[in-house]
Structures are given as C-alpha cells and as structure tokens.
Amino acid sequence: MKTFFAALNKVELAITMTCVAGFTSVLMLGAVFRLCGHPLNWCNDVALLMLAWTVFLGGDVAFRAGRMVNVGLMIQRLPVRLQKCIAVLVYLILLAMMGAMVVQGLKLCTNVGARTLEGIPGVSYVWVAAAIPVCFSLMILTAVNRLMDLLKSNDPVFLSKM
C-alpha cells in the first residue's frame, strides 16, 4: 500500500507542478498579448482549469505529507490516548465532509455538463468541476490510510503530524 501511495504522490505532485507552471505561463502570455492589443480569449479559461486541479490535487499532496493546518498546540499537552481520540474524531468529521464534497462535486458536474468554457468552444466546464469529486476521492483514500496508521500508532510525534 505504501508503494501505491508513493507512486500516487509522485503523479499528483508532477501534475500539480505542471499545472502551476502552466497557469502561470498562460496568464503571463495572456497579459503580454493583451498589452499588445491582441487579447487571447482562451487564456483565462485554461488558467482556471489548471488552477482548479492545482488547488485540489495540491491539497491532497499536502494532506498526505502532513502539511495541513492543524491545532496541535491546543491538544499536545493532553494525554496521548485523548490526543488519539480527538484525532480519530477529526478524521471522521473530515471523511464526512470529503464524502459530501464528492457528492456535491458530482452534482456540479451533471449540472454544468452543457456549459462550455467561454474562450474554448467545445470544451465542457465539467473538466474544471471534475477536480472536486476526483481530488476529494483521492483525499478520502489518503484520510483512510492516515486513519489506519493513526489507529496502529501511539507515538506522540506521529500524532502531531496528523
């Protein structure tokens, strides 16, 4: 399972980094062409597409690495057993929220199916909206994996990275 998540992390990180470089380049290109009096209508739409995937995939990469914002300062003085109970409760709340995001993201995809990106006729807005259910599904996998690791460990250092 660890090799699967290591490979998944490499793929997500590569896509995220490519999208960051892509939307930065596309926005810069659009700005230069607009300055020259020849605006490119598709630049903002391509940047929106890349930004959506960057945000949500990057969220999963950060979550998997234990780099998300947490409130460890508030619970680090509690006994390890209580810290673990609080962490499990937080993960259960996160899983419920992530499940709701997948459901709502799928509804969004069905609702915007006919809408196309304004600057790119023929490309559906679903490609932007799909970032929500796809990436939150990946986050659910990450959360379940981290929750399983949490349940197996009593190490306070490990708990602080959750």
The helix/strand series, from N terminus to C terminus, equals HHHHHHH
Low-confidence stretches: none
Radius of gyration: 19 Å
What is the general shape?
elongated
Describe this structure in a few short sentences.
The protein has helices at residues 2-35, 43-64, 72-75, 80-111, 126-129, 131-152, 156-160. The protein is mostly helical.
What does this protein structure show overall?
The protein has 162 residues and is an all-alpha fold. It has helices at 2-35, 43-64, 72-75, 80-111, 126-129, 131-152, 156-160. 76% of the residues lie in helices and 0% in strands. Helix 1 runs antiparallel to helix 2 (43-64) and helix 4 (80-111) runs antiparallel to helix 6 (131-152). The longest helix is centred in the first third of the chain and has 34 residues, at 2-35.
